[in-house]
């Protein structure tokens, strides 16, 4: 009687699309910074900025995912406790 949510799995095609999309975006930014008509210091600053932004995005995605997974675990524990209490409760028991 428990309505446990179905765990959604990403397909291999979706995973590859995400990887390829990230690679194309990173390559495009890298080429853009390299071909920029500016001094080497400006290009280096932009390259480091892009790397910092990329690592920050990965960190943010991980933190959001971890928080969501922690919430699901707490929800499952609460659901199991409630189901145990309901299973042990006898409404016809004399007081």
From TrEMBL:
GO cellular component, one term: plasma membrane
GO terms for biological process, alphabetical: DNA damage response
Sorted UniProt keywords: Membrane, Transmembrane, Transmembrane helix
Name of a matching Pfam family: YiaAB
Keyword Metal-binding: no
Spans through the membrane: 12-34, 40-61
Domain YiaAB two helix: 14-66
Name the UniProt record assigns to this protein: YiaA/B two helix domain protein
Protein's organism: Streptomyces viridochromogenes
Organismal lineage: Bacteria, Bacillati, Actinomycetota, Actinomycetes, Kitasatosporales
């Amino acid at each position: 009687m428990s309505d446990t949510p179905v765990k959604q799995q990403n397909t291999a095609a979706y995973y590859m699309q995400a990887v390829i999309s990230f690679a194309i975006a990173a390559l495009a930014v890298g080429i853009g910074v390299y071909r920029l008509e500016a001094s080497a210091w400006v290009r280096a600053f932009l390259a480091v900025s892009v790397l910092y932004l990329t690592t920050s995005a990965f960190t943010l995605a991980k933190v959001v995912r971890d928080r969501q997974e922690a919430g699901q675990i707490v929800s499952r524990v609460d659901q199991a406790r409630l189901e145990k209490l309901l299973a042990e409760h006898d409404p016809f028991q004399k007081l």
